[in-house]
Amino acid sequence: MRAAAVHSNLIFLWGTPRSMSTAFLRMMLERGDHEVFHEPFSSIVVQGRTAVGDYTATSHDELLKLLEERAGDHPVFVKETTEYDYLTTGGDRIPEVGRHTFIIRDPRRVIPSHYAMNPDMACGEIGYGHQVEMARRVRETTGVRPYVVEAEELLTDAPGAVERYCRHLGIPFLESSLSWQPGDQQVWSRTSQWHRDAAGSSHFIRAERTYESTVDNNRFLYDCYWHHRPDYHVLRKWARSHAVSAA
Question: How many CB atoms lie within 10 A of CB 201?
Answer without folding.
Answer: 19
